[in-house]
Hints:
Blueprint: H1 6-17, E1 22-25, E2 30-33, H2 39-49, E3 58-61, H3 79-83, E4 90-95, H4 106-109, E5 114-119, H5 123-132, E6 136-140, H6 152-159, E7 164-165, E8 178-181
Parallel strand pairs: 1-7, 3-5, 4-8
Antiparallel strand pairs: 1-2, 2-6, 3-6, 4-5
Helix pairs in contact: 1-5
Pfam families: Sua5_yciO_yrdC
Keywords: ATP-binding, Cytoplasm, Nucleotide-binding, Nucleotidyltransferase, Transferase, tRNA processing
InterPro entries: DHBP_synth_RibB-like_a/b_dom (IPR017945), Sua5-like_dom (IPR006070), TC-AMP_synthase (IPR023535), TC-AMP_synthase_SUA5 (IPR050156)
Amino acid sequence: MKTVSQSQITQAVELLKQGEVIAYPTEAVYGLGCDPFKRQAVEKLFHVKQRPMEKGVILVAANVEQILDWVELQGCDWEQSVLQTWPGPMTWVLPLKQNTKTTMPEWITGGRDTVAIRVSDHPVVQQLCLAFGGPIVSTSANLSNHPPAISCQEVEREFKNQVFCISAELGGLLKPTQIREAKTGQVLR
């Protein structure tokens, strides 16, 4: 897989820090992302996508260390099931830690006591999250009820230059990543 230019990553990270929405390649489709801890950024993402905020979103990270402060994983019955699929194209719904110093905003969780997270092995997602210093939002790059974009050209057509797009190859999956509930192993998508 061809690597993306460092200048695209740098520009994307600057935009994320400014509360902007970006588009980037994932395992199967282009994703829209923003800083999950800036409410205005997430609101902008939902506005661009024309989607209600109550649904919550998936976070994507470069490694497990980027998410351990928020989720119950280490020492849990489901730890090995999760870790054997990461990094990779599997999204897990994990319970939030109780009494953590940093709380997960309800605009990410949709008001639930869980959060959906994927530790991706896509090189662009990894570069992006490492350069950003943490997880970012990952939702498909499409307007509600439209098919997800699979190129920057489609992103630009769909969103009329409202988002910066990192141009690189998709990961090769034919459909969006599977989502599983960590406690039960149940497949949700």
